[in-house]
UniProtKB/TrEMBL annotation:
It comes from Catellatospora bangladeshensis. It comes from the Bacteria. The lineage of its organism: Bacteria, Bacillati, Actinomycetota, Actinomycetes, Micromonosporales. InterPro entries: Quinoprotein_ADH-like_sf. This is Uncharacterized protein.
Amino acid sequence: MARRAPEDAPELFIDLGVLPGEEPAEDGGPALPHGPFRWSRRIAVALAVAAVLGGVTAAVPDPRPRLSALAVLDGKGTQVQVLDDELVVVLGPDGATAYETAGWRQRWQVAATDLVHAAAFGDVVLLRSGGSENGGWLGWPAGQTTAVDRTTGQTLWRTQRYVEPAGDLLVSYSPEGSQPDVEIRDPRRYDLRWRLPASRVWVYDVRRDAVWRLAADGAVVEHDLHTGAVRRTLRPRLPAAKYVNIVLSREAVGFEGYEDNGRPEQRGVLWYDAKTFAQVTGARQWVWESDCGGGLSCAYTAGDGRAFLIDPVTGEPVRSLPEEEFVPSPAGLLLVGSPDLGFITRRVLARLEPATGRRLTDLAGWHALSDDGTPVRVLGRTGARQGTTYLTELAEDGPHRLGEVPYLLRSCGLAGAALVCTTMSGDIAVWGIGRERP
C-alpha cells in the first residue's frame, strides 16, 4: 500500500531560480560541474565552466513548473521500469514489484535475484535475470527469463534459453553447439509452435512475419513466422567469405560476409529486394533503427556499422551521428561520460539540437536518471542542500525544470504525468507533474 502525503501537506513547489553553472554553490552545496544495443562509442571530453555558463545564459528562461508529492510506496527497489501508463515495475535485489499507476496500489511481487529487465508483452510480463542491463532482449549472456501474469503476478513459465519477442510470438533459442537450436513459442503458455530446421544462420523478420535461414547447402529459406511453412527457397549469390550472416532492412534482405576476425566490411554485403529477390543497392539499407527522440530515429548500416539520424517515416538520412557515447532524449541526443560521485548513471557532457545538430551545453553536468536504451526523459543533479536532487524533464521543446526533491535519486521513469523514482537508500517515491505556471 502506498504511504500518501498528508492531506494538509503544502504543495511541493521549488523554484530553482537558475540552471547549474549560473552561480557558484554556497558553502555545503554542490560544486560546479566540471563539465545505448552496443551502438555508443566513448571519448574523453573536457568541458570548461565558461562553456557551461555561455550555454546557459543564452537559453530562454523556462516557465515555472511544479511537483507535488503523491506517495512513498511500500517496498524497496533500485531500478524503475515503466511498462506503460498503467503499470510500473520496480526491480530490486529481492525481486520485482508491480504498481498500478491509478492510485499507486501494489499489484504483485515476484521473488527473484539479479533481475535486470522487465517488459510487457500482451497480458504477460517478462522478467530477465542475469546478463547485461543495457542489452535489452538481444544478445544476453545466459540467464533466466520468468513470465508472469500481468494482473496477478502468477508465474506462468521459466526458461534458461534466450527469448526474444517477435510480433505476437516468442523466439526461443540456445546458441550453444555448432548449429543454433531455434523454437517459436507461445508467450502465454510457452507451448511450442514449431522448430526451425538445422541451419547455418537465421534471423526473424517481424516486418514480413517471417524467419529466414541459410541452409547447409547454401540455400536461403523463408518460413512463415506463425506456422513454420516454407514460403520459398532461393539460391542468391552470396559473399565469397568463410562466414555469412543474414541482415534485414525495411525493404530488403542482405547477406554480409566475414572471416574469423569478425570484420564484415572486408567481404561486403549483398542486398536483395525482399519481394522479388532482385539484387539492389546497399544505399539507405538500415539494419537497425531505434527512437532517438526529437521526432528522429537512429539507424545503422551493415558491414561498416555507420550510424545516422534519419526521418522515421521516409528513412531518409538527416545527418551522421557522432563517434562518441550518447543516449537518446526527446530534447536531442545527449553526449555522455562517466558519472560524478553520488550518481550511478552517466553524466551529460552536451546535447545535440535535433533540428541543426548544434552542440549545446545547457545540460552539461546533469545525469540521466534512466539507462535502459529508451529516450531519457528525466535528468538529475545534486541539490543545494545535503541529500537532495534537482530534477529536469526533457521534452521535444527542450528542458523543463521540475524542482528539488528531498532524496538522492538513483533511477526514475515517467508514467503519464507521474514521476516514479528509486532513491539511493532503496525507497520508492512518486511525484505528480503539474502544468506549468504562467
